[in-house]
Design a protein that fits this description.
It is a single chain. The chain is of the alpha/beta class and about 160 residues long. It has one domain: NADH:ubiquinone oxidoreductase Nqo5 subunit (Beta Polymerase, domain 2), CATH 3.30.460.80. The chain is about 20% helix and about 25% strand. It is built from three helices and seven strands; from the N terminus they run αββαββββαβ. Strands 1-2-5-4-3 form a five-stranded mixed beta sheet. Strands 6-7 form a two-stranded parallel sheet. Strand 1 and strand 2 form a beta hairpin. It starts with a helix and ends in a 36-residue tail after the last strand.
């Protein structure tokens, strides 16, 4: 592990007004939505975070903004991880897609869109990947009723 790398990342991003702290053994960055692509590009190009691991969301009903969209990255050279999160309001749950930087983001963003309803601007394929066409709602939102019945759909032949 290279703690110097994480300190350099923290110092660089904190100097640009982004929140950066160590939590649970990894660097956690909080930033506004407009800074997402530039920050991820910096992590990839300047600091060597060449592997995009995951994107998910956290639902905070009653909080404004309601959602945190959370991204995880890994440096295969330095063997360290970094977590990045940005707050997204319920009325406009849109963040920029990371597909231009990491091709694998296409499928992970589809899953997050399925489960939480987060829209990834620039990902042209947000079809359901875990749910079926016609599924109504987003099942990982905390206000989704677990007893809800879904419309029946015909099997494809």
């Amino acid at each position: 592990m290279n703690p110097n790398l994480l300190e350099r990342v923290r110092a660089r991003l904190a100097s640009e007004g982004r929140e950066a702290e160590f939590a649970h053994g990894l660097l956690a960055l909080s930033l506004p939505r407009p800074a997402l692509l530039d920050t991820v590009r910096l992590l990839k190009d300047e600091f060597g975070f060449d592997l995009f691991l995951d994107v998910t969301a956290v639902d905070w009903p009653g909080r404004d903004p309601r959602f945190d969209v959370v991204f995880h990255f890994y440096s295969t050279r330095d063997h360290v991880r970094v977590r990045l999160k940005t707050a997204v309001p319920e009325k406009d749950p849109v963040v920029d897609s990371l597909v231009p930087l990491y091709g694998s983001a296409a499928f992970m963003e589809r899953e997050c869109h399925d489960m939480y309803g987060i829209v990834f601007r620039g990902n042209d394929d947000l079809r359901p990947i875990l749910l079926y066409e016609g599924f109504q709602g987003h099942p990982l939102r905390k206000d989704y009723p677990k007893e809800r019945e879904q419309p029946l759909v015909r099997y494809r032949e």
